[in-house]
Design a protein that fits this description.
This protein is of the alpha/beta class and 391 residues long. It has one domain: Luciferase-like domain (TIM Barrel, Alpha-Beta Barrel). It has 14 helices and twelve strands. The strands form two sheets. Strands 1, 2, 3, 4, 5, 8, 9, 10, 11 and 12 form a ten-stranded parallel beta sheet that branches. Helix 2 packs parallel to helix 3.
Length: 391
């Protein structure tokens, strides 16, 4: 089972000091957090995508491309890639490029985001959110899996003889998650393609999460990708720890009370009772998260939100150390002890996907110099012709 952290990249005033980082500091703190997570031995770092204050991660591939060069083992991912407001052609190019740079050590999560105004900013209508997600992803898959694409749809101009570059690494696209907290259409989409489904449960009771996950599992089996319990599932969570549980509550309460999303709402105690938020000792986190499989089945990825609500960078790094040293080894060991042998332990790696594709005969060898699909000529041919003219 994979364990990691995800960031929404909020810029929030520290309520205990009154200090607010600027955008530059916040971006750099996210880079520090990702590198520290890699050094601590966590499996995944994921960044959100936002285009409005108080959030800074507007360009996930830029951040993850840099991190690919300065980390060694951690899988680089997104906690949201906006499939509704990004052009699928651009997504195909950017994430194939990231896949090449990261040598396959990446995946991504498609989502619609939670900010309504982003739709008109990018020329779209929020009322078309679900149709946009469905059409855009269908095109994205074709751009990754077909060398030449002819396409027409409702939400963008047609494509004729289009080839997205670079081609996916080893001829195999990145693994994709579909993230949703309340839309069964997105769970259906994930199941249809045999992709992963991620439920960010930080605002929802586990009963709701279980309903969404179990629906996805049933549809995954319906479409013939395997048994329901073999579907690839990820969950979002949220913790704050101290070796003294009451001290954890006392330390986290000021940040919870003013958090940009859920602050000024339910009390910390009520919110923790109704959602996976766990504030207490490492053992309390182990006890709670170690039991989630009883509601959603054995799942493959657990991500935690830790760097938000104005928490100082030093505190976040300390939280990562507690997670990596005292919580994850126990959760990993317990999950493996009860996982049935036929259930995947983790999402498929790039190497595993390449091997599976080759077995199925789906990988096409790429020529060193691809020919132009209209004339059959290569760029090298044109260079030689130009040289002949000038000689």
């Amino acid at each position: 089972m994979q364990f990691g952290i995800f960031s929404v990249g909020d810029v929030t005033t520290d309520p205990t000091t009154g200090r607010t980082p600027d955008d530059t500091e916040r971006v750099r703190s996210m880079l520090t957090i990702a590198k520290h997570a890699d050094e601590a031995g966590l499996d995944v770092f994921a960044t959100g995508e936002h285009h409005n204050p108080p959030f800074v991660p507007s360009s996930p591939t830029t951040m993850l491309g840099y991190l690919a060069g300065v980390t060694k083992n951690i899988t680089l991912s997104t906690s949201t890639t906006l499939i509704t407001t990004n052009d699928p052609v651009r997504l195909a190019e950017e994430y194939a490029m990231l896949q090449v740079i990261a040598d396959g050590r990446m995946d991504l999560m498609m989502g619609r985001g939670n900010t309504g105004p982003v739709y008109p900013w990018f020329g779209q209508d929020i009322r078309q959110g679900i149709p946009l997600a469905i059409e855009n992803y269908a095109l994205l898959r074709r751009l990754w899996t077909e060398d030449v694409v002819d396409w027409s749809g409702k939400f963008r101009t047609p494509l004729q003889g289009f080839t997205s570059t670079p081609r996916p690494l080893d001829g195999v696209p990145p693994f994709v998650w579909h993230g949703s907290i309340r839309s069964p259409e997105i769970a259906e989409q994930a199941a249809y393609y045999g992709d992963g489904f991620f439920h960010n449960a930080i605002f929802w009771p586990m009963e709701h999460t279980a309903q969404m996950v179990n629906f996805y599992r049933q549809r995954f089996e319906h479409y013939g990708h395997g048994s329901a319990d073999q579907a690839i599932v990820g969950l979002g969570g949220q913790v704050f720890m101290d070796r003294d549980s009451q001290r954890a509550v006392d330390r986290f309460r000021p940040y919870f009370d003013v958090a940009p999303v859920y602050g000024h709402g339910p009390s910390l105690e009520d919110f923790a009772a109704q959602t996976p938020l766990t504030v207490g000792s490492p053992q309390q986190v182990i006890d709670r998260y170690g039991a989630f499989y009883q509601q959603v089945g054995h799942y493959q990825r657990q991500l935690f939100l830790m760097d938000h609500a104005g928490l100082p960078l030093k505190t976040v790094l300390e939280q990562i150390d507690l997670l990596a040293e005292e919580v994850v080894p126990v959760l990993r060991r317990e999950a493996e002890a009860v996982r049935p042998a036929h259930v995947p332990a983790a999402p498929p790696s790039h190497a595993e996907r390449v091997a599976a594709a080759r077995t199925a005969g789906e990988v096409h060898e790429q020529s060193v110099a691809a020919a132009d699909h209209w004339t059959g000529r290569t760029a090298e041919d044109d260079v030689e012709a130009a040289d002949a003219v000038t000689r």
